[in-house]
Amino acid sequence: MAIIISIPTALRQFTAGNSQIEVEAATAGEALQHLTSQHAGLRPHLFDDRNELRSFVNVYVNDDDVRHQSGQQTPVKDGDTMMIVPSIAGGVASEAEVETTLPSLSNEEIARYSRHLIMPEVGMAGQQKLKAASVLMIGTGGLGAPVGMYLAAAGIGRLGIVDFDVVEASNLQRQIIHGTADIGRPKIASARDRLRDINPHIEIETHETRLTSQNALPLFSNYDLVVDGTDNFPTRYLVNDACVLTGKPNVYGSIFRFEGHASVFWATKGACYRCLYPEPPPPGLVPSCAEGGVLGVLPGIVGAIQAAETIKLVLGAKDTLINRLLVFDAWQMKFRDFKLRKDPNCPVCGENPTVKELIDYEEFCGLRAQPQAEPDALEEVTATELKRRLDDGQNVQVIDVREPFEYEIARIPETKLIPLNQVVARMNEIDPSRDTVVHCKAGVRSAKAIASLKRAGFPGKLINLKGGITAWSDEVDPSVAKY
Amino acid sequence: MLYLEDNQRREIVAHGERDYPYECCGLLLGSFESEGVKIAREVYPISNAREEAAKRNRFLIRPEEFSRGERQAEARGLQVVGFYHSHPNHPAVPSQYDLEHAWPVYSYIVVSVQAGVAAELRSWEMELDRTRFVEEEISVSFQAAQA
């Protein structure tokens, strides 16, 4: 079947000046093969060394791009016309995009990554891209554990980890990068050892520091991607804004109780975290995992999703979580997928951004103590001071506003249990003539209970136990279990 | 040899400065003469199709835009003879990336824009064996040359 191929002006010297060449072929690919075997000089300008059509060369059959059809398999029939059209790409060299500069793999690495290498979606070029990639993980906790372990195993060439915490027993229920022998060690050291053991072929860079508005930008600009494994709002907004300002993708995950969220916030391609949540929730409204608990395996699932998205972004995969929020409920065992849109009015990535540098995120999230004393300012007592008052025989009663199952795990002696959601209804059980210290696990719910009681008109004096039963265990009685 | 009139040069320079710190790009419409001589008759600016962040170091003319430019050229008896783009804060020398995405014969004009001001404009042609770009002489006026 005769097909007419139009030859672009620039390439006509290879077809003896002819602007049209007629070939017999059943597919577009076959037509190109015939064309380039008849006119060999054309070949290097249409195909690369690996015999693939050059990325800037576009082939049209009757005005339709074959990439939108079956590629080179697109069938052609008698009388069809084909056009070869360049798209023009170029510009200042960026190392990462020039494939010839990708690092090669040793035989050991080839053996290690063989299950990747045999998949066309990864292949040698993809594995080299992973080796050339650099990823910064914020946190080596519940999410950071699987993220780090899978990214190290996958052969991400340079992995930066940021953490300043110390491994505690209560971490081990979910933070599987750390072990029992690591309790008391800096998380960063424990994580580094585990990652090195998983893959000695990669570079691990440790940053034992709290992420701040001062260090975030220089830190982020040194990596290709950032993975957010943080557990609090100020850091989450900080990570988002620093990613927007440095143009880096933010591979996001968050977890609470049985529910996990994951997304990719990349302002140059879609929504950022602030497009989804312009303002942080009021302080204390959303409890942390330390307050509300979390199913240990949940960060394993969400962190593995983050690791998968990170790898896909490096490989240049199309269907990522950009502009999508994936919500996973482990109790119902259901995934849901929500569409996100970039907000043109977003204060950081919108058309007229008002946030052009990093701000004070503690203050932004309402966590900075107000300097002026408010009339109903919360009165607090430390665990040590409470112990002294009780020992002195002062007239103090202690109300525990946690849930009964928490009371089963650990309790302060001689306290009365009234869970937070019953505290107003059972107000008459609290003697207003005595000083009342209210406590929970860490001090957030008890502060709420005090606010509710005051609003309900409770006449007695209410004092919050700072740091809750956790502080009691730390400061007064280590035999009280921490959970 | 590329003939490029002063007003066309000014248009390219202005486009490069206007789009700084991003790269600008466009087509050169004109005619192919004998012995590798090209005459630019018109400058055809194109909006840079890449996303914001990538615009600083990449430009892209989509095939549809190329075809549209080519049709417009043909309607006036012209052809696409080359392309221009800017290198913000980089010299007017084609990069390795440029080389991998080029065809021979066309003129590739690169204008260097330093801190918002065009510094230098040079034209390049790729060797037939794709190994490198060779600088191409720019002559101001075809009419002047003939006179």
Short synopsis of the structure:
The complex is a heterodimer of chains A (483) and B (147). Chain A has helices at 28-38, 43-46, 107-112, 114-117, 123-132, 144-154, 187-198, 216-220, 233-246, 273-276, 289-292, 298-315, 361-364, 383-391, 404-409, 444-455, 468-475; strands at 2-6, 20-24, 57-61, 64-65, 81-86, 88-90, 134-138, 158-162, 203-207, 225-228, 250-256, 259-265, 324-329, 334-339, 380-381, 396-400, 416-417, 435-439, 462-465. By secondary structure, chain A is of the alpha/beta class.
SS summary, helix count of chain A = 17
Q: Which percent bin holds the helix content of chain A?
A: 25-40%
What Rg of chain A, in angstroms, do the CA atoms define?
30 Å
Our measurement of the CA-to-CA distance between the termini of chain A, rounded to an integer number of angstroms, reads 76 Å
Question: What is the strand tally of chain B?
Answer: 9
Termini gap of chain B:
17 Å
- How would you write the strand order of the largest sheet of chain B? 8-7-6-5-2-3-1-9
What's the overall geometry of chain A? Answer: elongated
Mean pLDDT of chain A: 90
Give the H and E element order of chain B.
Answer: EHEEEHEHEEEEH
Average pLDDT of chain B works out at 84
Task: Give the largest chain-chain interface (CB within 8 Å).
Answer: A-B, 31 and 41 residues
Query: Which range does the strand content of chain A fall in?
Result: 15-25%
Largest sheet of chain B: 8 strands, mixed
The total strand number of chain A stands at: 19
Low-confidence stretches of chain B: none
- Portion of residues in beta strands of chain B equals 35-45%
**Which segments of chain A are poorly predicted (pLDDT under 50) over 5 or more consecutive residues?**
94-100, 370-374
Largest sheet of chain A: 8 strands, mixed
